[in-house]
Design brief:
heterodimer; A: alpha/beta; Pyruvate-ferredoxin Oxidoreductase, domain 3; 7 helices; about 20% strand; B: alpha/beta; Rossmann fold; 4 domains; seven-stranded mixed sheet; about 35% helix
Chain lengths: ~190, ~625
Amino acid sequence: MTNQHFDIYMIGVGGQGIGLLSETLIRAAERAGHQVRGVDTHGLAQRGGTVTSCLRLGEGAHSPMIREGAADLVLALERHEALRGAATFLRRAGTLLYFDALWQPLNVRLGAQPQTTTAEVEAVCGQLGARHLRIFDPNLPDPRMQNVSLLRTLLQESLVPGLKLQHLEGALGELLTGKVLEANLALLNA
Amino acid sequence: MSKLGSMLLGRESFSEIVIGNTALARAMLETGTRVVTSYPGSPTPEIADAILGIPEDQRPLYFEFSTNEKVATEVAFGASVNGHLSCVFFKSVGLNVAADSFVQLAHMELLGGLVIILGDDPGANSSQNEQDNRHYARLAHIPMWEPASASEAYLMYKEAARLSVQLRKPVILRMTTHVCHAKERVQFDAWEPVALNPTPRFDPANGPYIPIASAVFPLKARARARLGDFAAHAEGCSFNRLLDHNNSHRGVITAGLPFLSLLDCLEDVGAKPDVLRLGMVFPMAAEKIAAFLAAHDEVLVLEELDDFLEQAIKALAYDRGLHTKIVGKVAPEDWLGEFTPGKVRTILGRLWPDLGLAVAARDLPLPSPRPPQLCPGCGHRAAFWAIKQALADTDITVADIGCHTLGFQAPYRMGQALLSMGHCTGTAAGLSLFNQTRKVVAFIGDSTFFHAGLPGIINAIFNHHNFTLIVLENGTTAMTGHQDHPGSGHNVTGPSHAMSLDRILEALGPTSLRRTDAYAGVKLRQMVTEAVAEPGFKVIIASHPCMLKATREARRAGTFKDRMVTVNQTTCTLAHDCVSTFACPTFQMDAEGRVTTHPDLCIGDGSCLQSCPARAVTPPAPRGNGKES
């Protein structure tokens, strides 16, 4: 917490489910006692472009948008976006947590630019004196659960002040139903 | 009923975490707004999502997506002069479409009241420009409120609607992208529904409603007089805020979301400037502003996009003989982009270096940029891939607005010029004049065809223009969230006559009309080759359902076939047509040039098979363990 706020910047690719991630986290953070505000990318960028979401906790946060280089925590759902998020929004001595999915951007697929490596992501975190957490799970029952896999690590590592399992479970319960809810709760508790 | 719908219908006061657009829907119910119209456009479509979350039989208002913003405005106007409180909403550039009728509104006695919600887009997040629609308020003599948050959007709508009813004049609520989508817990009031009065109350005696020649002047004079009433309200507007930091030297005047960016910056500042935040940006609270100017040596006018407030405030200072130093736009970049917390920090730090807001520039490596793409299975991709083969590199292609605009990117480079909704046929006609050497091909989507496409098509036939129009039909308004359009056979309430593009075009009489499935590459290429060789105005309809919509619907219905294509590594000759020419995002290329398909991305549509000269892309098959063959 700096100046009574804690800023979480989420980044991924349109179609990866960053909407559910941000919607779960804002509700869970409020359940943990924080004042919350945030904003997601909607519209054009959702078509396979970079999508982001800002979540700001605490009474010192006014705008829903986070300042560049000021996020306490960056959560990324893809490797290139992890590098982008860390390089642009992560503050010095902050934390990057990313799910190492790989969705090549256009120029990488066309062979015009190199694919980002895990070492590059780690190096940027090193330059920022930031904590670096990479997760990857090839055995998820559904790739659309990568976001909840990220939430599980976020919880295990206590990356959000005051956030507990019951807060995330309660938030998921507000947003999902039936088998999808059961599968996600099971993953969270795994 | 959706959770959202039952929440919005609650009679008791409640609170919920919602985005600004959702909060507006509740404000409509509480104010008794009876008729709401729109044309979909980011950042506003979620207002409709919220309204449509309420089942039609319990919805206390009439809602429609009209064919375009102008028609939407006219429907809302007609309902208002019949006595119903009405609302029309659309995106920033939608106001250009609506403008011809919009500029008349303040002349009219709007019996029921009328709220216009604008979704401006500073930063051009989802638009072809970042025009500042505050100018339109001044142009059309219509007052404008500017919320900074979801809570304020809800409260300002209620205040603006109340005044609109009372003064029988239109009012504007100017949202911006990150106010529309800002999330926070909003406290909603109780709601006491008022019974509908269906009596048509239109009466020419309330007018006149025919502004012709000298009849315009009394109407304009009345509109100006009512602006005086709104100006009086602006002085006491409950959203004006004066933050007195006891600083007689420095002050900041601001409004809307930049106000919150400013508050963020001031968290890190010791000697804070005083702040005057305006709830209404037109007309301005002149007395409040003059007093604030008089109380400070130097005042920064902090506003996103144009110098709208700055010009008015400088004129006010001149009229009042005030000698306060007024600083507004200084550098070229002050006119560009959103005033995010980072940008406001830069501006404040530049003007007042002693505040210690300077931020060291970063020089960290960035990954390859990731622009938006046509989705896996998109019919537009298959169409562009085939069309490109039929055209010479020197031929000219004209884009329009929609998902297909993304075809301008590599590797397709289809669509080289863009103005606005429906422009493509007019622009293509101009490009074809005196042009004997370069074929001209225009693209339009089916929703845009109905929105603003028809006049240009009719012009092309009427005036014997020579070019080819390719209608990229996907059965929906895809980019803005899959809203129905007049060709899709449904409107927001249920079945509707599906207007046939073919029959409309046949009636208009182009030189030739062809239709194919967009996936049929050989056929489409042949059609384009033939059409561009003919004189006259030729139309090809390249059709395929939006696969993002189809996939989502199939998943919901439990009928989704979970299949994917794979690249046979034995027969693959590394020709790379799949990844470099067809370029579906599912094709991934490793450092050795080996191509695979991505299990998270492939939807098993198979449109890519035709792109492989070695037939190494294998037909869609049920995915096993998600691993490549």
